[in-house]
Design goal:
Blueprint lengths: L5 H11 L8 H10 L1 E5 L4 E3 L7 E7 L1 E7 L5 E8 L3 E2 L1 H6 L6 E4 L3 E7 H10 L1 H26 L3 H12 L11 E2 L3 H8 L3 H13 L3 E4 L2 E4 L2 H8 L5
Antiparallel strand pairs: 1-8, 2-7, 3-6, 3-8, 4-5, 4-7, 9-11, 10-11
Helix pairs in contact: 4-5, 5-6, 6-7, 6-8, 6-9, 7-8
The protein binds a DNA duplex (13 and 13 nucleotides) through helix 8.
Length: 234
DNA sequence: ACATTAACGATGA
DNA sequence: TCATCGTTAATGT
């Protein structure tokens, strides 16, 4: 049996991306030709704040997060990006320097589509443009809901929202019910300590909403998770 | 009150 | 062996 090479994984990842379906054969071929893949170990910097936004970033395998680190060494995580998802299109469109760090939180394979290819697609294919609008719209909804969760002043809601968003089918179609992510990272992404994330996860497990694994979490009842995240709990 | 950091041992891969 | 987990204690706001 032949080993699955990173190039195979990249090709399959691209083929599975929803917007690829509406490309012409020529456009699809250029995307396959221009897009490159790189591997990263857990904790590695995928692209650093302040760098030119030269590529659109896809998560072929593993998981990334978007964060900033202050001069004092404190970090704030903003969003987790599971496999199958794309990220960073906003900065590519604006042509700005990267406003945030993107870091691998599991061993990951990352796809890089050159900015020129991305802008060409955006200009040439209105299905692609429409997909981008939907993507940006979904992210906007995500962050508004995140603010709502923060305003509730309920750490269980924050953890529930963080988890629910990672399993959000609008944002990340094709994601599974089980995700390889440590409680440490769930805490960081939720904006709470690992201990509080641990407690929240166990409370949800007791209610049959999630199943806790070693370095992983499985969602059994997504609607219940969303209810807690929205404060429609108790 | 309730969250955070620090610390510890236990345990899974 | 190392990452991850479960828990407790001290500290901070």
């Amino acid at each position: 049996m032949l080993a699955v090479t990173p190039a195979d994984k990249l090709r399959r990842f691209l083929e599975a991306s929803a917007w690829m379906q509406s490309l012409t054969p020529e456009q699809a071929e250029r995307v396959q030709r221009d897009t490159l893949a790189r591997s990263f170990d857990t904790g590695a910097m995928v692209c650093a704040r302040g760098a030119p936004s030269a590529h659109w970033i896809g998560v072929v395998e593993g998981m990334l997060k978007v964060e900033t680190v202050t001069a004092g060494g404190k970090s704030a995580s903003f969003i987790g990006v599971p496999s199958g998802a794309w990220v960073g299109e906003g900065s590519v469109i604006k042509g700005e320097l990267r406003p945030y760090d993107i870091v691998a939180i599991r061993d990951s394979i990352v796809a890089y589509m050159p900015r020129a290819t991305f802008l060409w697609l955006m200009q040439e294919n209105h299905h692609f443009s429409r997909w981008l609008i939907d993507q940006l719209n979904a992210r906007l909804g995500h962050f508004i809901a995140m603010v709502q969760s923060l305003r509730l002043n309920d750490t269980n809601a924050q953890v529930a929202y963080c988890l629910a968003s990672l399993f959000n089918q609008d944002l990340y179609p094709g994601s599974r019910s089980q995700l390889a992510i440590s409680q440490e990272e769930i805490g960081r992404l939720s904006g709470v300590s690992r201990q509080i994330a641990n407690r929240a996860l166990h409370e949800m497990q007791d209610k049959g909403i999630v199943r806790i694994g070693y370095g992983s979490i499985e969602v059994l009842d997504l609607p219940a998770l969303q209810a807690i995240a929205a404060g429609n709990n108790e």
